[in-house]
Amino acid sequence: MVSEEEKIEFLKELVSIYSPSGQEEEVAKFLVESFESFGVDAYIDEVGNVIAEKKGKGNRILLAGHMDTVEGVIPVKIENNYLWGRGSVDAKGPLATFFFAFIESKANLIFASLVDEEGFSKGAKNLSIPQPNFIIIGEPSGFDGVTIGYKGSLTMKFIEKVEKFHGSLSSKGAAEKLIEKWFEISKDFNEGFDKPNGRILRFEAYERDFDFYGEMIVNIRTPIDYQPPIKGEILDFVPAYEVSVKSPLVRTFVRAIRENGIKPRLKKKSGTADMNILAPKFKVDAVAYGPGDSKLDHTPHERLNLEEYLKAIKVLKTALEEIKILQPPKE
To answer: Do you know which HAMAP family this protein is assigned to (predicted)?
Structure first.
C-alpha cells in the first residue's frame, strides 16, 4: 500500500508540471516513469495518450482521465490542507485518484491518460484499446458525487458578406446580420441540463474592397437531441450523454460512497467531457468520478482538498471491487 504522504507528493508533482492542451509531453513521461516505479508497464500512444493495463479477474474497466489543462499558471502550494495549482481539480486530482486506485486494486483495468480534452478531445477520439465493459471518466464530481450526464458541445461558424452602402442609410451590414443570428440562436438559452446555453467564441467585422464582411464562431452546450434554430458551418460536435440512474455502474458508485460513510449525490453537468465520446464509442455505460469542486475549474482559485482526494481513492477502490463482478447491461 502507498502511504498518504506519497499520494499527496505524487499529486503535487503532477500538478507542478504545466501541461496546457498541446503541451502534455512532460506530464506523459512523468506518468510512464511513475508506473514503471511500481513495476507496471506503460506506454505513450501515437497521439500522446498514456496507456497502462492490469490483468485481473472479471469485467474490464477503463479508467480514463486527462492530463491537459487550460492555460494559466497558478503557483503550486499546500495551504490549510488544500493543494493549489492549475489542474489540481480539472483534472489531475481525479487522474491521481485513478493512478493509485489502479496501483492498489486487483481489478481488470485499463488506465488511459488522455490529451487535448480541453481542446477537441484528440486523445479520446483516437483511443485504441481492448473493448471495456464499463468506463469511469476522471472529472471532478466531488468525492461524494458521481456524474451521470454531460451536455454536448456544438461549435459553428457563420460568415456574412454585404455590398457596401453609405453610413447614412439604415441598411444592415454583415456585423448586424451576425448579431441577429446570435439573438436567434440564444433566444432559448437557459440554465439546467435540459436547456442549451453557450457563448460567442470569436466575432470579427471588417471591410474589403466593395463589401462588408463578418465572421462569428459560437459554441453551444447542447441537451439531448438538440437542433439549433440556425445552422452554420459545423466545426466540431459532441452529442450530450446521460447514463440511466438504474445502470448497475451508477448503483455501484452510490453503494461505494455510502460504504465509506458519505451521503452520495448524482450530478448532471452543463459542461462536456470525454465521457460524451468514449461511452458511445465503446457502447458501454460510463460515469464520471473524481475529487474536487468543479466550480473552481478554469479559475485562478483552482485548489483541491487533500482529505477529499484521499477519500476519493478509497471510494473508487471500493467501487472497482464490485464493478469487476457486475453483469454488464444488455444492449
So the answer is: LysK
**90 annotated to bind ligand:** yes
| 97-120 confidence digits (pLDDT tens) | 999 999 999 999 999 999 999 998
CB atoms within 10 A of CB 205: 16
Q: Is 194 annotated as a binding residue?
A: no
Residue type, 16: S
Domains, the chain, in order of start with CATH, read 4-151+240-323 (3.40.630.10), 152-238 (3.30.70.360)
The catalytically annotated residue of 24, 53, 68, 285 is: 68
Q: What is the pLDDT of residues 285-301, one digit of tens each?
A: 999 999 999 999 999 99
Name the CA radius of gyration of the chain, rounded.
Answer: 22
For residue 330, what pLDDT is reported? 63
Give the C-alpha distances (Å, rounded to integers) separating 292 from 5, 110, 172, 252, 331. 19, 23, 48, 20, 33
Give tens-digit pLDDT for 222-250: 999 999 999 999 999 999 999 999 999 99
139 is in an annotated binding site: yes
Catalytic residue among 24, 53, 116, 117: 117
Nearest CA to 87 among 308, 316, 300?
Answer: 300
The number of CA neighbours under 13 Å toward the Cβ of 226 is: 26
- 26 labelled ligand-binding: no
